[in-house]
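FYI - complex with IPE, inputs then prediction.
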Amino acid sequence: MLMGTNNIRHVAIIMDGNGRWAQGRGHVRIWGHVRGSSVVSSIVEEAQANNLEALTLYAFSTENWSRPFSEVKVLFRLLKKFLLKERKKILQNKIRFKVIGDTADLPEETKCLIDSLTQETSNFKGLKLTFAFGYGGRSEILHSVNKFITDNPGVKLGEKDLWQNLFAPELPEVDLLIRTGGDQRVSNFLLWQIAYAELFFTKTQWPEFKREEFCQILDFVSNRERRFGATTSYSCLNETKVLAEKNRQIIHDHLGTI
Ligand code: IPE
Ligand code: IPE
Ligand code: MG
């Protein structure tokens, strides 16, 4: 048991508030996306500087398909621009890049850029940078369950099986979920992976989110006591899970004496 440690390995961010940021300044919503996309790079740098293992960014949800075509188009273009612009830096910094979600409807060129960057970085040991694009937590869980039952007909699905069939099974549990933009909801993001995540909601809109605030949040949350259901600090859910199973057995064996 590790007392008092609050290792934050995996941070997930719901990058929200672009539209309201732009409208509040008399611009059209898409201006907020343009400005918002330029923030990403500094947050990735800060994640590396803080030795995070993984950073997962929510860029386009399954529900975002309901937005006007003109807005969706801009979001697609910004993804492509990011891939082109950041490619060199990602390679230099040995970042392992991946996209989770349904990218089938993205333009061919963008899909090729994603595929090549994913392949080229697949053995890198640096930050695991994951973009959630065309992503929905429920569809991911459904995808995992369906894949398992197709591959293993008649076998009962376990927790490990569900993990292993997620879009990015190598990612650890989410330790910290940050949402910018002031709303306090998870909007279908990483539903399975955030089971025991610390949640942090900031009113700062994404285009205004600075590395300093990111660091402050990391600092603040790393001082929170994480108990994972126990009565004292633990470093991860697996530790208390093992303990819970052991205790359950002890209680079971002594049921008669209770
Ligand atoms: C987040 O900003 C970016 C995406 C959802 C793609 P929004 O576009 O949701 O901005 P608000 O929440 O309307 O201000
Ligand atoms: C969540 O933001 C999705 C992304 C940031 C990509 P939304 O703005 O789409 O979420 P709701 O509509 O407020 O739930
Ligand atoms: Mg929003």
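The beta strands are 10-14, 54-61, 96-100, 128-135, 176-179, 198-201. Residues 15-20, 60, 64, 75, 181 surround IPE (ligand 1) (CB under 6 Å).
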